[in-house]
Amino acid sequence: MIKTAYQNELLFSGAIKKGDGGNDVKRVQEWLCLNAPNYPRAALTTSIDGQFGPATERAVQNFQAALKVPKTGVVTPELFKRLSAPLSNAFSAKPTAKDSRKAVIQIANAHLRQRSAELQTSDGQNLGPWVRGYCDGYDGSLFKWCAGFVQTVLDQTSSAYGRSFTAIMPHTLSCDTMALHGQGTGRLTRCANLRKKPACMRPGDVFLLRNPETDDWFHTGIVTAVLGDAIETLEGNTDVKGGSNGTAVFARVRNIQNATIDILSIDGL
């Protein structure tokens, strides 16, 4: 894979415990918060401040209780592996489909199943290990990660077959760069043509939302099904309102007649 920053999110050298501080403590706190939806009866959500205090110790013990292991309050490399398993599972998933379009959807669904999501703190949004994995090690309010999610899925899929997603688009975190390159190579179908002929898009293709007034692209995701004027999608950094700076990976339904949607073909991936 080209996008290998996720590997750094899985590294953990030694045990940490109450009284410790630093980046490894912060990463543990991030994963405690991210695991909360997976263990709704366990109190895991805690402050992300890099200080291993009594609240973090208790959250670690609650996670250990959920796993039915001794409640030591100490985070060992093995326990961190359990904390970060969702990201590891998503990024290590391999497609079983021989068709590249079906394979893209398989990999996108692997990330959805692992509850890929960002964190938000007083420092801003678009934070955490999932965002850094998608955005080549970067996170923070400036890093809207929808394009990073799309390219991760394409990278993971093409790499499984010994190919590179850069054969069809440049490595980028920018929706504009993806769309303009697709426009230059003939891969991009603009909204006006798409509305006349919805059949020109296929599952596995990349959709891009465009502001019709400024003619710039601001959000992207993967088409998983085409149903006339409706498309089903998998997209990162969105929310239940369909926003372009949300919180997680969601499966959505969008209407191509009600939004300015362009389509980028993945033929040749």
Question: Helices and strands in order, then pairings?
Answer:
Blueprint lengths: L22 H13 L18 H14 L9 H7 L1 H8 L7 H14 L5 E3 L2 E4 L1 H6 L11 H15 L14 H11 L2 E2 L1 H6 L9 E6 L4 E12 L2 E9 L9 E8 L5 E4 L5
Antiparallel strand pairs: 1-2, 3-8, 4-5, 4-8, 5-6, 6-7
Helix pairs in contact: 4-5, 5-7
InterPro entries: Peptidoglycan-bd-like, PGBD-like_sf, PGBDSf
Protein name: Peptidoglycan-binding protein
Organism: Spirosoma liriopis
| Strand order, largest beta sheet | 3-8-4-5-6-7
Outline type? elongated
CATH class of the largest domain: Alpha Beta
Secondary structure: helix percent: 25-40%
- Described by its quaternary structure, the protein is single chain
- Largest sheet features: 6 strands, antiparallel
Uncertain spans, ≥5 residues at pLDDT below 50? Answer: none
Tell me how many strands there are. Answer: 8
What is the CATH-assigned architecture of the largest domain? Alpha-Beta Complex
Q: Structural class of the helices, strands and pairings?
A: alpha+beta
Q: Output the number of helix runs.
A: 9
Question: H/E element string?
Answer: HHHHHEEHHHEHEEEEE
End-to-end C-alpha gap? 14 Å
Overall pLDDT metric: 97
- Provide the CATH topology of the largest domain: endopeptidase fold (from Nostoc punctiforme)
Radius of gyration: 20 Å
Percentage of β-strand residues: 15-25%
Number of domains: 2
Pfam families: PG_binding_1
InterPro entries: Peptidoglycan-bd-like (IPR002477), PGBD-like_sf (IPR036365), PGBDSf (IPR036366)
Protein name: Peptidoglycan-binding protein
Domain Peptidoglycan binding-like: 22-83
